[in-house]
């Protein structure tokens, strides 16, 4: 049985105080908007559970997402769909799971609501977003989505109604190779009741297996079902560590004296308590001093497929079974102990993957103090290396005693930031930050942390220059946090230092020096939450210098009062925070609630905006006398009232989001409800659509440059016929497949917010407008010449660039007349010189742009259906480099057309192949290429420069071989002097080393040579037709094209026919042909001269044979006639007639002989 959802831990929070009258009044004043919004929207919410095919139609229960193998049960059903736009020769597979979708509203029965929504035309729209794999070297980096419409399905349980009692909507849950993390966004189709959009985490759990009794069990340990209060009450909270956005399964340790962890695959919407099956041994020695042994799991880190834990000084890892990632079973059978001979005091997470791998760091103590172990996780395999390689950090910084207390790895730069504690001879401790280069194995100190906390003297922040005064409080750092998007580095302890360049640091004075930070929680989108040792929660908005206290605070007390008025089940008088984490840019708590009836662990949202708004109102009110009574007024410090984004470009060209749309087949049933068979058909269609997407890697591009991943392109002309069958209820299987419901979407429109992230190629830009409705006091009139006045506003907009050396921003302001508003036009542009060329989607540079309205941080809010949202600060991550989804293709259509035009003719091969046309050897070859954008569907001629090389070939497709580097040079380089060139060109532009020719779309073409030492020289024809050859051609723009960051590489086959023979072979064939010809002529002459003699000889021979036969017959007949004369009458005999005839022939023959001799 699954544990109920749970909540955060720390010292028990105090009971709520009775608020004074003003606070009560403030709570009442703030509650109507919230209560009104609840009433208008009925607090309806989507509900999604996972079902296997066998459980479809059951009212209760859900399944766990662990089966990753496709099913072949749908192929037989699709094979029955004759006269439908599918290819019956293909094999269709299905997915093992469905998503069951319902919705509920507060105070109403869910079954009646679903029936009502169905009758009103409501259909849930499900958008599944696949997260790309960490290993970009194995899996293609792509942002893929599929949008589906859920199908209504009646419950299979007992029902007394004529039509339906209980129903739900179902949609297939697709699986994609290379993805184990999926986001499911459920929205309405616009009909029926209003239900806000909701996102669900649906991740594959690779740490489950099925037992023989068909029950699921965890491979990492045994599931526990009792959540004892001692696990959480008065227990300190702990951070939740994982690879950001890539982790399907999260784990959280810290349960006292138990080797148990909380494990979830839904970001703690639900979870399990699992006792780990580890040996729990404790090895103490002189180099690893340990005062005591504990079973507590102190550090727990989750990566894409591997879990890491630390218990005492021991480190273990467990790799899950993810065949969609590894395409084989790399899963662990048990926990693997690593670094067995080391004394590990701490594990440090690396939040971002890089270069196709994930990372983890283990800090040592004892005999290897001053070293650390750097772990790399690639494709599920784990390896550790002890760093630095040459000498310890202590020797690098030339001290005797030091200790590494924290490490942060920047994967894109291969740099390690180390927080080092140094103890000098006088036992005085001080701290330094060192920079270690993993590639060069060099270390340097780049910042020495001050010994004491600076005296800010009432300022919000203070730049550390070394000339400021200090307090008597020692600076005690505990850790660091780095955001690779904005290069913002935090050093935290009983203070908070921040730096944008890792050199100049700013002290944030709002955080009290009497407190000590336990851990930081970074959203990496501009928000940071801080948890102290006393379980206080603070908040910092990146780009500002003010730190806000969220709990405990006056704003928290107001918010709790409102929740108690609504009798919320997510709050209790006694509660303990277990952890704090960001999900989808929202801050959540995992809290253990202690109620009078029961105790439970729940996940709840931390309403940061509401707390700040309540806190602002509580500090900015005043009483104003109006007549005989006092009125309560509030001061709004926000410089504007409304903020809108305008002129946003279509998102796909920047977000690189590929989206497919697939609707369920139409069922030919009056009620419109689907059956198990129609859902299975839906499964097969979606599986085949995604399979076609994964298989599209054709090097050739024809007239339709970007082929849609569809299977009906050869049957679309029959679409009207299929519709006719469906209209007459004659479709096979009682389902109708509409070809227009399965296609790729290229024209997504922009929403009214900045995208989650954008990609910029070389020199490209992104622009939008910000429209602000400002307050009247924000304007002033500025006199100008000619007694005219120019209206000016006092609202300023700032743009902060994380890497101003690589990007630039342009801001233009326009103040409309009599509009009480101001319009800002913002453009972000790449400077075109910060990055080298790379493969599409690889080696991208992380940066960001922060747009902020001056004076808005913490003061400006906008009411939405989801509650207040902060305004005035817009942080957008930016990836610079070659965007995903771009490719180079051989433009065969235009190449054929242009070659026919230039060469005045075109001769194809004898055996035509539409996928690979032929080109004649003696013609000049003019190749053309396309840049295809698989995301937007755009396609255009490649205008850049490129290098063309023949890298393989053979006379037939079966005999093609790859050439070595030395052969590639000889066959393609104009510097070759071994008579090995395959081709040449009249272009004079070459690479810097003159090794290869540089081509472009304006090149003068290619002339085929096939010199005597080339592989295509002297090709033996297999028949009487001219020789052919297949060239394997590589086209690359790397190092020669300055127009893009993309390193395009295209390999395709080129079929050339009409190759000439070598001189020797041609001469040999000429000699042989001439000899055969002359022999035939001589034979003919001989036959003509001897033919008459041969005829005469044949006649003489025939006469002699006849003569011999006649003579023998005569003598034989004469002897027999004498005997028969006594019995014979007067009738003449036959022999007398024959003998007379022979005498005549003999006389004639003698005449002929005499005539011929004369």
UniProtKB/TrEMBL annotation:
Q: Name one GO cellular component term.
A: sperm principal piece
Gene behind this protein: CATSPERG
Instruction: Using the record, list the residue span of the signal peptide; answer none if the entry has no such feature.
Output: 1-37
CATSPERG N-terminal domain span: 44-203
Record's InterPro entries?
Answer: CATSPERG (IPR028246), CATSPERG_beta-prop (IPR053871), CATSPERG_C (IPR053873), CATSPERG_Ig-like (IPR053874), CATSPERG_N (IPR053872)
UniProtKB keywords = Membrane, Signal, Transmembrane, Transmembrane helix
> What is the recorded name of this protein?
Cation channel sperm associated auxiliary subunit gamma
| Bias (Low complexity) | 1118-1137
Q: Where is the CATSPERG C-terminal domain?
A: 905-1106
- The residues covered by the CATSPERG beta-propeller domain are 207-649
Q: Where is this region: Disordered?
A: 1118-1142
Q: Which residue numbers delimit the CATSPERG Ig-like domain? A: 753-879
Q: Which organism is it from?
A: Rhinolophus ferrumequinum (Greater horseshoe bat)
Q: Which Pfam families match?
A: CATSPERG_beta-prop, CATSPERG_C, CATSPERG_Ig-like, CATSPERG_NTD
């Amino acid at each position: 049985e699954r544990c109920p959802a749970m909540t955060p831990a720390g010292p028990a929070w105090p009971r709520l105080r009775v608020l004074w009258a003003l606070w009560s009044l403030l709570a009442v004043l703030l509650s109507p908007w919230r209560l009104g919004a609840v009433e208008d929207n009925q607090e309806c919410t989507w509900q999604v559970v996972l079902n296997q095919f066998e459980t479809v139609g059951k009212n209760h229960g859900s399944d766990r997402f662990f089966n990753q193998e496709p099913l072949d049960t749908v192929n037989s059903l699709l094979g029955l769909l004759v006269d439908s736009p599918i290819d019956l020769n293909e094999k269709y597979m299905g997915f093992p799971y469905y998503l069951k979708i319902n919705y509920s509203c507060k105070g109403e029965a869910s079954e009646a609501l679903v029936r009502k929504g169905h009758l009103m035309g409501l259909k849930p729209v499900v958008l599944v977003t696949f997260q790309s794999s960490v290993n970009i070297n194995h899996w293609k980096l792509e942002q893929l989505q599929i949008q589906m419409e859920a199908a209504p399905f009646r419950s299979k349980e007992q029902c007394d109604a004529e039509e339906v009692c209980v129903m739900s909507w179902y949609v297939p849950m697709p699986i994609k190779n290379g993805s184990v993390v999926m986001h499911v966004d459920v929205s309405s189709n616009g009909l029926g009741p209003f239900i806000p959009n909701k996102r669900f985490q649906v991740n594959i759990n690779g740490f489950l297996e099925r037992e023989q009794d068909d029950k699921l069990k965890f491979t990492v340990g045994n599931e526990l079902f009792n959540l004892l209060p001692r696990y959480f009450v008065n227990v300190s909270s702990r951070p939740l560590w994982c690879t950001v956005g890539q982790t399907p399964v999260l784990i959280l340790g810290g349960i006292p004296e138990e080797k148990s962890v909380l494990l979830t695959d839904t970001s703690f919407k639900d979870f399990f308590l699992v006792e780990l099956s580890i040996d729990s041994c404790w090895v103490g020695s002189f180099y690893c001093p340990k005062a005591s042994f504990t079973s507590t799991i102190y550090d727990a880190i989750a990566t894409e497929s591997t879990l890491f834990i630390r218990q005492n000084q021991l480190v273990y890892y467990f790799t899950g079974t993810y065949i969609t990632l590894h395409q084989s079973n790399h899963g662990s059978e048990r926990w693997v102990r690593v670094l067995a001979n080391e004394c590990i005091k701490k594990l440090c997470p690396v939040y971002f993957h890089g270069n196709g791998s994930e990372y983890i760091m283990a800090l040592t103590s004892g005999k290897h103090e001053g070293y650390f172990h750097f772990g790399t996780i690639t494709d599920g395999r784990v390896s550790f290396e002890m760093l630095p390689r040459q000498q310890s950090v202590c020797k690098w910084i030339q001290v005797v005693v030091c200790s590494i207390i924290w490490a942060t790895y920047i994967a894109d730069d291969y740099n390690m930031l180390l927080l080092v504690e140094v103890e000098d001879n006088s036992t005085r401790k001080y701290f330094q930050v060192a920079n270690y280069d993993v590639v060069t194995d060099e270390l340097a100190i780049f910042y020495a942390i001050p010994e004491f906390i600076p005296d800010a003297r009432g300022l919000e922040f203070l730049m550390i220059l070394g000339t400021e005064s200090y307090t008597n409080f020692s600076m005690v750092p505990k850790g660091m946090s780095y955001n690779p998007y904005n290069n913002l580095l935090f050093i935290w302890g009983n203070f908070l230092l921040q730096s944008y360049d890792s050199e100049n640091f700013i002290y944030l004075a709002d955080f009290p020096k009497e407190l000590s930070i336990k851990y930081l929680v970074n959203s990496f989108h501009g928000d940071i939450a801080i948890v102290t040792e006393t379980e206080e929660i603070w908040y910092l908005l990146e780009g500002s210098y003010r730190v806000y206290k969220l709990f405990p605070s006056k704003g928290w007390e107001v918010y709790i009062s409102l929740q108690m008025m609504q009798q919320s089940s997510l709050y209790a008088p006694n509660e303990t925070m277990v952890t704090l984490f960001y999900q989808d840019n929202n801050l959540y708590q995992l809290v253990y609630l202690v109620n009078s009836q029961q105790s439970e662990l729940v996940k709840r949202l931390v309403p940061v905006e509401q707390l700040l708004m309540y806190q602002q109102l509580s500090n900015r009110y005043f009483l104003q006398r109006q007549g005989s009574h006092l009125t309560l007024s509030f001061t709004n410090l926000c410089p504007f009232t409304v903020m809108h984004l305008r002129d946003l470009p279509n998102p796909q060209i920047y977000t690189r989001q590929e989206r497919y749309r697939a609707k369920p087949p139409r069922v030919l049933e009056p009620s419109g409800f689907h059956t198990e068979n129609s859902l299975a058909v839906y499964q097969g269609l979606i599986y085949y659509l995604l399979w076609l997407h994964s298989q599209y890697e054709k090097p050739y591009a024809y007239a339709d440059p970007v082929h849609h991943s569809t299977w009906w392109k050869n049957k679309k002309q029959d679409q009207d016929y299929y519709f006719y069958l469906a209209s007459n209820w004659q479709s096979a299987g009682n389902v109708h497949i509409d070809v227009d419901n399965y296609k790729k979407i290229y024209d997504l429109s922009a929403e009214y917010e900045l995208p989650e992230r954008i990609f910029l190629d070389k020199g490209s830009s992104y622009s939008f407008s910000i429209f602000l409705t400002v307050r009247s006091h924000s304007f002033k009139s500025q006199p100008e010449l000619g007694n005219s006045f120019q209206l000016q506003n006092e609202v300023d907009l700032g743009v902060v660039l994380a890497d101003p050396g690589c990007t630039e921003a342009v801001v233009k302001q326009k103040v409309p007349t009599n509009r009480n508003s101001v319009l800002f036009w913002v453009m972000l542009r790449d400077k075109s010189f910060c990055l080298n060329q790379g493969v599409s989607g690889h080696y991208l540079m992380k940066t960001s742009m922060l747009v902020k309205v001056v004076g808005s941080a913490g003061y400006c809010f906008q009411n939405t259906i989801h509650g207040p949202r902060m305004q005035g600060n817009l942080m957008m991550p930016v990836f610079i480099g070659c965007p995903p989804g771009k490719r180079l293709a051989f433009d065969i259509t235009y190449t054929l057309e242009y070659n026919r035009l230039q060469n005045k003719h075109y001769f194809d091969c004898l055996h035509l192949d539409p996928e690979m046309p032929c080109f004649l050897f003696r013609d000049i070859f003019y190749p053309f290429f396309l840049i295809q954008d698989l995301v937007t569907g755009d396609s255009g001629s490649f205008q850049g420069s490129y290098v063309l090389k023949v890298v393989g070939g053979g006379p037939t497709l079966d005999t093609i071989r790859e050439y070595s580097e030395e052969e590639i040079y000889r066959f393609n380089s104009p510097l070759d002097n071994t008579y090995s060139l395959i081709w040449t060109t009249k272009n004079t532009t070459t690479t810097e080393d003159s090794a290869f020719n540089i081509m472009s779309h304006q090149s003068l073409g290619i002339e085929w040579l096939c010199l005597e030492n080339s592989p295509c020289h002297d090709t033996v024809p297999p028949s009487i037709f001219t020789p052919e050859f297949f060239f394997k051609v590589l086209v690359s723009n790397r190092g020669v094209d300055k127009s893009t960051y993309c390193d395009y590489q295209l390999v395709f086959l080129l079929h050339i026919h009409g190759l000439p023979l070598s001189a020797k072979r041609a001469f040999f064939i000429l000699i042989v042909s001439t000899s055969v010809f002359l022999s035939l002529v001589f034979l003919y002459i001989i036959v003509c001269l001897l033919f008459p003699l041969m005829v005469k000889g044949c006649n003489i021979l025939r006469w002699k044979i006849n003569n011999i036969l006649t003579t023998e017959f005569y003598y034989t007949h004469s002897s027999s006639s004498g005997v028969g004369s006594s019995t014979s009458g007067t009738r003449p005999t036959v022999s007398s007639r024959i003998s007379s005839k022979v005498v005549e022939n003999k006389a004639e023959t003698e005449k002929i002989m005499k005539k011929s001799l004369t």
